[in-house]
Amino acid sequence: MVVFLQYLINGLIIGGAYALIGLGLTLVLGIMNVVNFAHGEMYMLGAYFLFTFFTKMGMNFYLAMLLAIVAVMLLGFAYERSILKPLRTRSIETVMLSMIGFSLLIQNIAMLIWTPVPEAIKSPFPLTSYTLAGLYFLPQRIMVIVVAFLLVILTHLLLKKTKIGKAMRATFQDLEAAALMGIKIDRIYSFTFVLGVGLAAAAGTLLGPIFTVHPYIGNLANAKAFVIVIIGGLGSFPGAITAGLLLGVFESLGAGYISSGYQDAIGFILLILILIYRPTGLYGKVGQTR
Amino acid sequence: MKKQVLALVVLTAVGFWLSVGSASAADAIKIGVIYPLTGPNAAAGTYMRAGVEMARDRFNAEGGIIGRQVQLLIEDGANDPAQSVSAAEKLVTRDKVDLMIAAWGSSPTLAVSASVTKKYGVPHVVDTASSVKVTKLDGKRPNPWLFRTSPTSQMEAEGLEKQLVSKMGFGKVACLAVNNDWGRGAAQEFGTVVKRQGGTVVTTEIINGDQTDFLTQLTKIKNSEADGIIVTTDLAQISLILKQYKQLGMTQKVLTTGGGIVPEGLIQLAGPEASEGVSIITFYAPWFPEMTKIPQEAKWFVDEYLKRGLAPKGFGENFRGYDGMKAAKAALEIAKTTDKEKVREAFANVDTQGLSGRIKFDEFGQSTPNIFIVQVKNGKPFIPDFAK
User: Fold this and answer.
1) Is B43 in Cβ contact with A115 (below 8 Å)?
2) Is the confidence metric ipTM above 0.95 for this complex?
3) pLDDT tens, B155-194?
4) For the whole model, what pTM was predicted?
5) Cβ-Cβ contacts under 8 Å for A206 (sequence gap 6 or more)
6) Cis link prior to A19 (omega < 30° from 0)?
7) What residues in B contact A11, CB-CB < 8 Å?
8) Sheet holding B372-377, edge to edge
9) CA-CA distance, A51 to B43, in Å (whole number)?
10) Are B213 and A129 inside 8 Å of each other by CB?
11) A166, A182, B173, B350: which sits with the fewest CB atoms below 10 Å from its CB?
């Protein structure tokens, strides 16, 4: 029973970070109809900026985290304005190709700047863990889950309670009607994209100190993010959170009780089952085109 | 329009200049090298590249091989079989290399061996891959053109046969191995040796190459009766495993295999606390040049490598490229020509000293390098008495 609970806790913590990655992707997809293939690269950049600011330049950890996220958001803003905006009237395939190109470009630039050698962000937390009723709690991971949930709640409040959140939801429901009501679509798009990449960068800064950082960590983050978005339902906010947590827990339990060789396969088995029995995802609506 | 014409003229001129430049170097001995320079294994490939380049510079400064300068043509294989094969095709058919060093991992090496070097008849030095299949397939030698300076996983395990269970205390082991030919092969070979010495394998956990979270596997091992863990994967993953192992408060002994790991790398990536006491299998000990038969050269190698501004964590990889080049040099000097058939015959008579020990090939084209154990003690590399 203790072992089961330990697997469950491990899964939930990783799942929290997965939810954060998935959330950013689903926002951009839902509101802007843009498949952001560079999402994982934003995650990677978040981790690398934290490495530069904290490990290399010796800034305060939390300040470095914040700066790293802001830096990625600025890059996202520049990309949205210079590339995505002119492509807005083009087909979804054109935009997709530009995103794939962008992701390759970022990966290679990261290789030039930081070299392909993996780096470690020295964790400011102690290596030892707390024990409670035979269960282990690692301080670093507790921080991850706390910050991840704070960010999820903040994003939720932003969408539900603020004016810009309302405008975003209106754009999601009906683009033309929203534009006719005086909502500045360009501004909403920029804001959404910046928010989406910011969430990915936040996940990068949270997981960076736990894992190692190299220019290819975005690939895994991307794979997970897409599984989460499809399981949760394209563009669904609660779907991304549920799917993220589910994926984390399933992977952990599957690796613990079946075989660790199948850890990644489990996510995709879950994906196939969802596609067969609920093709629109857990929270997706039938007939939704986005 | 004018601009385009001008651009064309300039391009053509540059093209001519380049082709003239390569014509003057046609005299050089061309060695084709395929390493992973992009992708998740790019770090290892970068260190290996430094190894071959240092060998080239040293040989050329000494007057070249058989009086000819050495030219390296380095391609990126990304540790991917398809990409490595097309790089090898290009090196053989277009660049007409005299010899090949390829292709790092076991899977791309097997692919290059089967579909390029054997097909075209090009001498092929393997300096990293450790799958037994590269030199021995169903008891036969699959490619008469291939010569391997790196040891197989089986040689690593058998090299520790006398120490592993009785002296190092790996009686009940858990294997943690990456999901590819190398990882699965190593888990099997080490398991065989442990069992033959009266120990048991409690569990074998296979992990994915891009996995970053190992808490589940480690929790499982922690709650098992294993007293030692044998880990086979790359530095990035091993450092994560060690960090998480420390966080779970585990006390099992840890042994890493494959030879690509050095204490410096572990300490930098996993931290001194998590690396303390770990045993590492290595084929070359850069900290103790006196342990090789060529101490001066070994000392020079370490100094020169650091002088080039490269990271000390590359010491698990860089020597392989250097030893591959030494094997190539020895064979070319015996053959006294770059005629491929003569070079192939010459490899059988090679007997020289590399950084990882004696380079001499058996009837399968396999050399037998040194196998050491290095431990991390007080944050420094340390060779235990039983391993000397």
Assistant:
1) yes
2) no
3) 999 999 989 998 999 999 999 999 888 898 899 999 999 9
4) 0.80
5) A17, A20, A143, A144, A147, A148
6) no
7) 216
8) B200-207, B172-178, B228-232, B253-256, B279-282, B372-377, B380-382
9) 18
10) no
11) A182
